[in-house]
Design brief:
- With 283 residues, this protein is of the alpha+beta class.
- Helix content is 30%, strand content 23%.
- The protein contains five helices and 15 strands.
- Strands 8-7-9-14-15 form a five-stranded antiparallel beta sheet, with helices on both faces. Strands 1, 2, 4 and 5 form a four-stranded antiparallel beta sheet that branches. A three-stranded antiparallel beta sheet has the order 3-12-11, with no helix packed on it.
- Strand 11 and strand 12 form a beta hairpin.
- The relative contact order is 0.18.
Length: 283
């Protein structure tokens, strides 16, 4: 059987500038929610914060109404991996771990990112897992940058870098069936970006590609199930999960982390494009 042809949207520098603007809206919303996470706060409270920040910036929450999704964020707590729906009845408790996924569309272009945050004094092993997920995401982004700069990079180089970083961090489950994706005039585009796999496979990494890199790992088994709401994905064994994400663009002089205020320079140094001044945090 022949594999389906991928339809990968390549962006111009001007279009990537627009994606950067959308990405900074997402970054601002996530920063506001990060500071608001505390025992007693509901996931609906966080959703209201996100929608307010996004709309005040002149953008629109890209999740709200997406295939009927009713909210501006996904707020996945503890064993919830991704796509959990915020609710007034879901009150954060001391020690919880929450993953917040947020998207915005501005001038027709999307930004998408996620963070995992401890509530109050979360257990060190849970915070360590969140750190491993974040380190793996940055390893994947670095692989994308190196691949486009060398002219020899392939999509699964990102997948391999993510998996290798997770395995180096400890005994975690890497969730299968969910992963990163292309992003641009739609929130989800080709190609799908796995969080595991052998390097050197898949389409070449080209200048103008924009990708969302998003590891999802668990403290136990990687097996998941979808709840009856048709959205919330949970671990089958009840183990706690972490999910992080950044949207990136590949340019001829490096990678631009569109949803990170400094463009990724603090984590990636010279792998980051010179398109934006090094001391810029506003785009």
């Amino acid at each position: 059987m022949r594999r389906p042809q991928l339809d990968i949207q390549l962006k111009t520098p001007e279009q990537i500038d627009k994606m950067r603007a959308a990405g900074l809206v997402v970054a601002a919303a996530l920063a506001r929610m990060r500071t608001a996470v505390a025992p007693g706060v509901t996931t609906a409270d966080l959703d209201a914060i996100a929608e307010s920040v996004i709309r005040e910036a002149g953008a629109v929450p890209s999740f709200k109404g997406y295939h009927g999704f009713p909210a501006s964020i996904c707020s996945s707590v503890n064993e919830q991996v991704v796509h959990a729906i915020p609710a007034p009845s879901q009150v954060l408790r001391e020690g919880d771990l929450i993953s917040i996924d947020c998207g915005a569309v501005l001038d027709g272009w999307h930004g998408d990112a996620a963070i995992t945050v401890g509530v109050g004094e979360a257990r060190p092993e849970l915070l360590r897992m969140a750190t491993v997920a974040e380190d793996a995401m940055w390893a994947g982004i670095a692989a994308a940058a190196q691949g486009v700069l060398s002219g020899r990079g392939r999509l699964t180089d990102i997948s391999y870098a993510v998996e290798r970083a997770v395995r180096a961090g400890g005994r975690y489950g890497i969730v299968d069936g969910y992963g990163g994706h292309g992003i641009g005039t739609e929130m989800h585009q080709d190609p799908h970006v796995l969080n595991h796999g052998r390097p050197g496979r898949g389409p070449r990494l080209f200048v103008g590609m924009a990708l969302a890199i998003e590891p999802m790992i668990t403290m136990g088994s990687p097996r998941t199930a979808e709840l009856d709401d048709g959205w919330t994905v949970v671990t089958r064994d009840g183990s706690v999960a972490a999910h992080v994400e950044h949207s990136i663009a590949l340019l001829d002089d490096g990678v631009w982390v569109l949803t990170e205020p400094d463009g990724g320079r603090a984590r990636l140094g010279e792998l980051v494009t010179s398109r934006e001044p090094a001391n810029s945090s506003s785009g």
